[in-house]
Task: inverse folding
């Protein structure tokens, strides 16, 4: 089942010809969750063959333009495409104020509801849950109230063995019961235990998104062991002072957090427009955490 990250944009505030502003799309078993919505998301989604109408929830980290200026156009295009399903947007209270303005001035008559869910940027808390996934906020520190997001799959049921179904002629109607923990009794009264009929469930997968923020070593306890961490790496470490002044992170700092949190893989992005050689960021990060990759528009990372 799908659990994959699509990079729509990985640049920072100043536009360049190399990158779009920040946005990502997480595909969880066919459900689309957008994370931040910088300019250019509609074009990039079309390039990648991703349906705008499949987005149910949008999670905004903060109210800076390079993370939210794509949202007004996306809302309008969804209406032009005939959307009727509700669209849920999660983010700091300032995002809600922007949505209120948009709905009063531009979108009073669109054909679907846009529902806002405020996120407390000071708390690590559950902000969304459905049958397959839980999303928690991650408190970050930037120039505006900012939250990252932690996506965790819920544990699944064990897999029933095909050879056991055939060997004991188990009817389809009983498969879900066995997955849920039941054993099977044959016609001659032999009890076949649940453990023999099944194999362990697929381990639940996880993804953490941290952009924009100053380096916060304490995040390691929140994101420990995630399969994939996306963390901003705006600057090379020679500009660590500049990163601290602007409340951003260097590649070395992002990699140090990934190492300390024992994550599976690190993806770095939100590159400063002043950096011409992004491989230098990658080299710095890999010197600390070898399992690092560079974000890039069109990149799809399976989790």
Result:
């Amino acid at each position: 089942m799908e659990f994959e990250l699509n990079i729509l944009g990985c640049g920072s505030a100043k536009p360049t010809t190399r990158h779009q502003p920040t946005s990502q799309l997480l595909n969880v078993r066919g459900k689309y969750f957008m994370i931040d919505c910088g300019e250019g998301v509609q074009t990039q989604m079309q390039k990648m063959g991703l349906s705008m109408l499949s987005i149910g929830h949008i999670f905004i980290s903060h109210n800076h333009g390079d993370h939210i200026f794509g949202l007004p156009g996306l809302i309008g295009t969804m209406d032009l495409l005939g959307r009727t399903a509700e669209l849920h947007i999660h983010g700091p209270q300032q995002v809600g104020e922007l949505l209120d303005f948009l709905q009063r001035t531009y979108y009073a008559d669109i054909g679907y509801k846009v529902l806002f869910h405020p996120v407390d940027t000071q708390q690590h808390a559950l902000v969304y849950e459905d049958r397959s996934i839980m999303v928690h906020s991650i408190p970050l520190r930037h120039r505006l109230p900012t939250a990252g997001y932690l996506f965790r799959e819920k544990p699944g049921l064990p897999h029933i063995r095909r050879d056991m179904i055939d060997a004991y002629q188990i009817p389809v109607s009983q498969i879900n019961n066995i997955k849920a923990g039941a054993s099977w009794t044959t016609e001659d009264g032999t009890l076949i235990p649940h453990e023999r009929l099944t194999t362990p469930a697929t381990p639940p997968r996880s993804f953490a998104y941290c952009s924009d923020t100053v380096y916060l070593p304490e995040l390691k306890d929140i994101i420990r062991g995630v399969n994939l961490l996306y963390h901003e790496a705006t600057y090379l470490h020679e500009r660590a002072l500049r990163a601290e002044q602007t409340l951003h992170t260097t590649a070395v700092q992002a990699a140090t957090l990934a190492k300390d949190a024992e994550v599976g893989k690190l993806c770095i992005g939100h590159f400063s427009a002043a950096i011409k050689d992004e491989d230098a960021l990658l080299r710095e990060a890999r010197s600390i955490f070898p399992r690092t990759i560079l974000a890039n528009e069109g990149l799809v990372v399976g989790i």
